[in-house]
Amino acid sequence: MLQFALFETGFWLIAGKRARGRTITAFGPSAAVGATNAAGGRFGTLDGAFGRSTQWALREFQCHAKLPQAAVEDLHSTGELHLQRIIRRPPEVLSGHALYPEAGLASGGLNAATARALQSWLERAYRCPVHVYASPAARSLDPAAVVQEGIWRYDDYDSNAPRMFAVDLSATYPLPASINTTVQMDGQTIPKPITIGGYTGYNQGGVTYGGQLTGGSHIWNLETTEVTPQTIYGSGGYTGTGLSAAQLSTFKVVRAASHFECLGHFDSLNAYDRVTLSFGLCHWTLAVLGHSGSGTIPVEEAREMGALFAYIASVEPQVFRETIGRFGMSAASAWPLAAGGGAYFSAIHMESESGPVMLCGANYRADPTRKEGIEDNHYGHLWPLYYRMQMANRTSNRFQIACGKFARQRIANILAARVGTGRVSDYLTSEKAVAMAYRAHIYTTSTLNRLTTALGAIGRANPTHNQAREELAMTAIERAASGPAVGHVQSIRGWSDLPQRNGIALGVTYRLNLDDPSISGTVGSFRFDPP
């Protein structure tokens, strides 16, 4: 009955890997897979067991029942698609039992408040207010062009041809004016569907992954989403007017790395490789999905996104609650954390009825023959979860500012690293040098050990710090870098100005237009604005 209720209210995650259709003809362990929808999709069976899919779907119900509004299904509609039926009636404000308490656990457990809310949703024909569907971009408002609807799992639709959109009827996010518009779909006036991104496949270490990617034309490319003084500091707009010398210098370093990490935009996320989900100025990662290369599957491995959650919960508790905490996720470790190699790491906790549990759902280092941990980490791979993270990055300036402070903490750690009796800050004193070291360190923290060793040798041979030693230090960074970061640090060294207005990174045109766009390699040019 619980599976039926979750399916009926639009949480098609319950129906297994391929929840694509409209109706199921039977329920239970021997359920027959029933009718197909207009797009030809078929359902998985509802197995009658309280397993992973049931827990995830129930947790997603709890998350969505905390939002301001629910969609309402027109039960008399003859529309082929579920999407057509939920846009024929206006959404309704959640109240009473239908509104799951803000402090209620997003546990995936059927507690009393969840049972009351679910019953209320069934009685009122309430449906999930965020509906993800796939469609060619040019026909995104044409129901006949929808190639799949009700997308939940990362691989529910695994073609990179169409784009994924969300019809969001929840009234949760404060949208900029250019996005907060209405359109006509199937003869109904609805909020303009929000572009999420697309699917892409990926092979890493001989293992095939795949998942979400937001880039190019998927990015909003607005003042509210680009990495600018305004989004990092809350002032300065595109031009940096009014920033102190230290703020502007530090911004240039942060922006230089973000050019490679997130295309200079907060809403450039991806979830197609072995670290489940990554976003932000350093593309902080969530959780591991695959082999580490040594034969183990470190499903509980602490990652940088967990540390980011701990930091934001400490410095901006209300922002954390609104964007992440109320959806059941938190850092396993509280801030302050001890830095490891100049960066910070924490595993992710999820709420349960009996207390917090690891995101992977099992407290062990997995045997390669056991897949439970990997599969549980795929919860972080859901399209609606990806959408929530994306919208936090798109619509909360306080979230963005907190991310900027966390990024600057990493710069502080790099500069404070020991080199003999001194510090890295004694050797890297130009904007270019600091930006290069920062970018290389984001790719791998092991860069720092190689760099400090090289800087020590440079210092012994060149005790006076001048332009010549600064150049030697930049060369040392190039040699300490690894992977694609080698080319990136070389690019930074060759810049005279920071890439900005009309500059392009992988199809994204920048709007940044600093009054002083120069990024200097001159000794002593860097001024640090600590977090």
Explain this structure to me?
This is Peptidoglycan binding-like domain-containing protein. This protein is of the alpha+beta class. It has two domains: 2-19 and 49-172, no CATH class; 198-509, no CATH class. Helix content is 32%, strand content 13%. It has 15 helices and 19 strands. The chain has helices at 2-8, 52-64, 82-86, 112-124, 229-233, 245-261, 304-315, 317-323, 372-377, 383-395, 397-416, 431-443, 447-461, 467-480, 485-494, and strands at 69-72, 92-93, 126-127, 130-135, 163-168, 182-185, 188-191, 194-204, 207-213, 270-271, 278-279, 284-285, 329-331, 348-350, 357-358, 418-419, 422-423, 504-505, 508-509. The strands form seven sheets. It has a five-stranded antiparallel beta sheet, covered by helices on one side. Strands 2-1-3 form a three-stranded antiparallel beta sheet. A three-stranded antiparallel beta sheet has the order 13-14-15. A hairpin with a 2-residue loop joins β16 and β17. α7 packs across α11 and α11 crosses α12. The longest helix is centred in the last third of the chain and has 20 residues, at 397-416. It is elongated and about 80 Å long. Residues 17-43 and 362-371 have low confidence and may be disordered.
